[in-house]
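Can't attach files on this board, so I'm pasting raw text. These are the components:
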Amino acid sequence: VTRTLISELSAHVGEQVSIRGWVQVVRDQKRMQFLVIRDESGQAQVVLFKEESPNELNETISALAAESAVTVSGMVVADERVKLGGLEVQLSGLTVDSPAEPELPIAADSALDKRIDWRYLDLRRPDRRLIFEVQSTVEHSMREFWRKEGFIEIHTPKLMGSASESGAELFKVEYFERIAYLAQSPQFYKQMAMAAGFGKVFEIGPVFRANPSFTSRHDTEFTSVDVELSWIDSHEDVMTFEESWLAYVLGVVKEQHGEQIEATFGVEVVAPTLPFPRVTLEQAKEWLREAGYDSVPGPTHDLDPPSERALSTIVKERSGHEFTFVTDYPTTVRPFYHMRHPEDLSLTRSFDLLWRGIELTTGAQREHRYEQLLAQAADKGVETESIQYYLDFFRFGAPPHGGFGFGLTRLLMQLLGQENVREVTFLYRGPNRLEP
Amino acid sequence: VTRTLISELSAHVGEQVSIRGWVQVVRDQKRMQFLVIRDESGQAQVVLFKEESPNELNETISALAAESAVTVSGMVVADERVKLGGLEVQLSGLTVDSPAEPELPIAADSALDKRIDWRYLDLRRPDRRLIFEVQSTVEHSMREFWRKEGFIEIHTPKLMGSASESGAELFKVEYFERIAYLAQSPQFYKQMAMAAGFGKVFEIGPVFRANPSFTSRHDTEFTSVDVELSWIDSHEDVMTFEESWLAYVLGVVKEQHGEQIEATFGVEVVAPTLPFPRVTLEQAKEWLREAGYDSVPGPTHDLDPPSERALSTIVKERSGHEFTFVTDYPTTVRPFYHMRHPEDLSLTRSFDLLWRGIELTTGAQREHRYEQLLAQAADKGVETESIQYYLDFFRFGAPPHGGFGFGLTRLLMQLLGQENVREVTFLYRGPNRLEP
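---
Top answer:
Structure tokens for the assembled complex are below.
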């Protein structure tokens, strides 16, 4: 069967075609039968005159359950009265490739948890599908940019022999005669790629967090986007890369899906201008105080979600920009391997990127000098025995390097105005959710 | 510091530049000092006249351990006598970004296991690096092709609530109050994407096998490449897609790395012609017998590795082609969800793709009709209780579909003539190997 996509029907008026998809609606009238067929490109009306067709076919159509998978053959006819593209297909043949059971287990207004039980039916909604089309475009344009810049793609192991930086939230795996751990981040291994002289690397892959939270922002498995660059002079080089890269990606998304995203989710895709605004954490807190924000976190503390939202609003008012790099976090809120400012050892060469009120990514220059790294681990009270393999990466010549990482779903939620990570994840995983 | 890549030095003759990389060699002569610096683009000779430079600098250079990470500033001078590109850099400044300890733990001829202990040093060898440059090109060209064809990229969960098709070789994860399993394949979930109406999908991601083998071909975690297509008429459509896609990928690899692969590994990259030869399993066994091959597997058996090698040789002699699709495997050697031939229910609509003597991929049309799927599961004695979530994908209209999958390392090994999966994996994982 040569399949014609519904979006291409207008090029086949007067021709016999086969369309293949799902039964959206069956309308059985006295003299005619109507079907609406949905495929990945759109919807089409199919019509059959009862008098001109065999009884058996009429009965098959009457009995068709919505969501059955079918192949419809017929003539494409232009008819201005038809709402679906001014076209209809006059049915001459029908094959039920796979019937649906008569009662669908979910509807569009079913509770989210129920929709996830039947995720594949939920994903048949065109707005859900759009999320994953946008995800595909986001990832592809990220990779195009990396590729042009000479990045190497790496796949780091998800099975690890020891806990990484933090022992918390780790999943344990029965690994032959011992225990393995699931990677919470490719952090240490992307740094290994720097020590290996790979120059610039990226990875898009799963990470795992044994976090018992049920919030709309937490999950136990998600897709992490990670970047690491060598031979930088400071975290400024990392930010310069990240902003150009994100501006490229959002530009492509706007071009390819901007109208559809606005029509579907009511969110405008804005291709950001360069450079993104930058503000030190200290200055950001000053701005918050000046704006009358009354619960500014103390000097050794990170911003909390409400102050991130407030700061984004302030920056938006000042510069019109949706993005803000907040820089120079104190060592108290950063891991031991973030490089410290030579002129102020209490501050790190690190940043967060805020977007539309939330923290999108975290980045930093890393400490690449073995002795300093050991000293910083000791200073932060980090137990180094289990991470000696990581410290070893810095014993035989490591380049200055830095990078950033984030969850792909976080970007999609902001981009598409979605409130729940479950909506932008193909199959969500949480403490009570391992199915389907 | 504005860094100049070594490969770009010839455009900077007569200019002051900074190159950044690793110390390959230090040669301390009476009146001069030579360094060879290596970066990701090549190697360069650096020279210093002792009489014209401070003692302190001479001493720093004398004390430099090989593999230290350094930044060298100097004037680029053309000199035909210099083997490395007819250029040298006359040193004016040197920064040791990170010194190497004096004694390297591995050498080029160290045992493989030892080299993996110090994988980052092993990966500094340009031939090792080339493997991952080629991997990046392979993946990028795969994705370019998919993108042009309208595929959606999916990320299926690696944490699963129940064993998939086979309970063997599964890793168990302590998952809050219960047990989760690590995915051995995205098979069931890429089929879910078909039931969701995604049309055509791909995934490149990790899979896990609790296989206790230590062979050169086995590992416990590897990167799987998976493709699934809807609205096919038979497995022939899957093969037609796969051969065009692979021919594109190998064409790009040949163009971008062909010469370097041949120079480094002595292997020619051949961009295959279309179509690839096809032979039924039954016919393939007949060819083997005709060729005098004396241990042809019986009628209900798959080919074993020696007969795959023999068959590849026969096809190469017959048609000059490196690839062979072997089709129509009996149900005895295929999972229950492979569709059966309507005209011979003992055969499946399935195939293997052989390349240079080994099985590269396995593919099939899947059974999308719920009742048939149940019947086939019963026929094969499959316990369906734990996979009801999978069977449910077929209850509300599933399109005819099929696909294929394979380990990325398998392709790289054949492409680059590598004998051990450990060489083409960024960080190998095996029964005794969870570090680094």
